[in-house]
Amino acid sequence: MKKNRNLDYLLSASLSLAFLILIYTPLEFRITEVWMLTPQINKYIPTVFLIMLVLVFNLFNWKKILAKGKIIIFLFILILGFSCFVYYDYRNDKLSLEYLPKIYKINSSWGIQGTIIKIDGVNFFPVWEKGRAFLDEEELYIKSWDDKSILVEQPVMSRSGNFKLYLIRTDGLVSNKVPFLVKDPKELSL
User: Fold this and answer.
1) Is the pTM higher than 0.85?
2) Is 85 helix (H, G, I), strand (E, B) or coil?
3) Inter-residue long-range contacts of 137-146, CB under 8 Å, 24+ positions, other chains counted
4) Domain containing 168: what range?
5) Among 9, 55, 57, 173, which lies 20 to 30 A Cα-Cα from 116?
6) Contacts of 15 (CB under 8 A, 6+ apart)
7) What does the pLDDT read at residue 110?
8) Alpha carbon distances (Å) from 133 to 55, 102, 141, 142
9) C-alpha span between 111 and 116 (Å, rounded)
10) What digits encode the pLDDT tens for the residues 86-100?
């Protein structure tokens, strides 16, 4: 009986890890690297999710399930193999994007000439390696620069309208582009 229970624990843990990789890692990648909602997710979330999966999969009687045939065993091995492939792909993509400069938040989605814009994110480089900030092709005046926060001043723009705000680090890497509206000061007096 104990031997069967050990097999149940092993299968539950294996499937839980596979499902963590298949569900959590792509979602975490989207949230942190693609949608850029936050630089990182709380470190306890994957652990809690894994424990929940282990508890759920531990409710199954794996001896009865595996006794149903070779197709179930094949599906089990296929899920484990596919999760390894997903994890490998995730790690490659995550490592390739991990050190790029990323803008997560700006203090305002619009501005006029002289507006101070606070840009929060990661991987901007330290103060002695200031990069440059742009609204499309127009460069912004940098007031303050550090690895996670930048203050820039909007100059007098050649036109008003929709722009893309982005950074270029001293090593030439370009951040994500964030929409920014430049308003004409005349619009504010109405």
Assistant:
1) no
2) helix
3) 138/163, 143/116
4) 102-188
5) 173
6) 53, 57, 76, 79
7) 93
8) 49, 12, 8, 7
9) 8
10) 898 888 888 778 888
